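ugh finaly. both done.
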Amino acid sequence: MESLLETFRNLDLSQKILYGVGCAAVTTVSFVALRKLTQKEKRKEYPRDTVILHQIGRGPYAPSMTPFAVKLETYLRMARIPYQNVHGMQPSPKGKVPWIEYNGQPIGDTTLCINCLNQKLGVDLNKRLSPADKGIAQAMQVMTEEHLYWLLAQIRWLYSRDASFILETFKFSKFFLWMIRRHIRKQTWSQGLGRHTEEEVVEMMYKDFQSISDFIGMKKFLMGDDPCEADCSLFGMLSQAYWQFNGSGFESLIKDKYPNLAAYCERMKEAFWPDWDQCITHGGTREATK
């Protein structure tokens, strides 16, 4: 040990810096490797033939603050598939949340989760749709998830008039909120919609909502009297704007401007979320497993 200290003292400043950086890197790699080994050893065993739904904690006014968690859990309820919630920030092997495990198989991305379960369990929530209607439903889903989602993300995270709702809900520090916003800016810039002005983003949001409202009209669900798979995506996205758009300046947008979408949200809630009040954190209630 003394010889090592003597050697370190004889190094010049640049060599000492390189030595310190090298030691830090080795320590970090060792810690990460040890953590992974520990996680593997502590891997929890879940019941077979039960979907394990990994998602962040519950939201204050809707069951989740992410539309994709509401989408996936609504699908499981609509398809009557047994599932169990695991709340936390553990990502899938693809680095995404929410995700599922089924009999030990991890699956990331909500659409791939649904496709896999459809195949494994013989589920078809679109069986009443014609080929043309399936195409329309798919187009509406893509618009909702790949266009409207990014608009709502910018309005919630970047353009909110009052950030206190986010700070209180997630227990974020202002610095961490700044980090999240920086990440959203980077994502939306790369996606493309982040290159527009706030006014342009808001106008696009109105157009998407109007298109969905015009298409649903007086129908009970997206494609008619019976819900289909795309309703899960649509309800997940609308749940954010209808119930928990707090601080955005658009809290009552759907209720006031698109009453048929508000009625649609209430129908989906009544049909598939009879325990809604037990699945939100507002008022002190918190649901852990299903």
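ok and the 2nd:
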Amino acid sequence: MLLPEHLGKELLRECDITVPFGTTIRSRDELERALGSLKGASVLKAQIASGGRGKGGGIRFAYDRATAYSEFDSLLGAEVNGLRVDAVLVEDFFQVTAERYIGFIIESSEIWLILGSKGGVDIEDISQSEPETVIRLLINPIVGPSWDEMSKACEKIGLNNRQAYFELARNLFKVLKKNDATMVEINPLAEIGDGSLVALDARILIDESAIFRQPRLIQHQCHDTHSEADQGLPRPLAKIKQLSNGGAVAYAGIGGGIGITVADWIADRGQTVSLMIDLDDLIASGRLEEAAPSLFQSFDEAPTVKVIFISLMTCSYYIPDLAEALLSAATARSQANAKPVVFNLHGRGEAQSESTFLKYRVRNSQNIADAIEKVIAAANGEVLP
């Protein structure tokens, strides 16, 4: 379950992570009250279940009240990344010295911390073009990140205020465990003039199988919202990112943090991810089945791609539904230019998806490590069984 940004920031604040002061609003009257509580310049952010809001026009900046009203009027009710904006988070603007990245993800029952000296909208691209700016740490699931781990990580990627990053990592680990999250991500994480850290965004996925322990979060689940004019019309395919020219791997998954990890892992094995797409928006809005054929076509037509890697590890979505949409599209392709596909689908309802894999005569990888081995083999020109 993907939490809206404003609720994610509440969870960060509860664990002593600094976030901008802000209010979620739905009318001009509420905007008037909200502006009275802010220090000066403001940021207005569309509250939708989608990443990439900045590039999609869903984040606006206002340096005076007149501009704030104008930006609010143009944002509320608008379409951003194919979703209607029904609520806007208005919060204090921070003058940022540097944008960083930090996140925890759970994959294959392991907890990984990802720390980046650069952050922002193109974090996946940065992890490929500048791998020295990103580091991944396997974290002890009981005690969390240690001082030695964080100190060495900060030194490796050139972060100076090690104590601040250590305290932030410890607090973010608390957010993960306290709320039964499978991913917590701050991007961008702002470093401001005095060296302190501020979470400018919050992307948190909650394990739906554990939601009975988090009853206050259920009512806040993000839902896809379409405009009336769009009802019944096909939705656009989510954007495929080009991370490099000449890479042999095309990757589709859920979440920027996992994408960085996968791209890093593949790079460590001597291959490169050239194309990447986050399927979260397509799945959340019920458009995966519609978009899957075009997705595979785009990957198949990429001249340098030798293998397609589909990795979905999620407790939020139902694996049998995802498997049916993806496997039916993959097996329906013309074999003339079809690239080999490595599937790694694990999570809620995983056992029930076995019949789907049998029906389409496709193998599911045992885990992420097994899947990466197959991807590297195919990228190196080996024929997959």
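summary for the 2nd one i guess: The longest helix spans residues 162-178.
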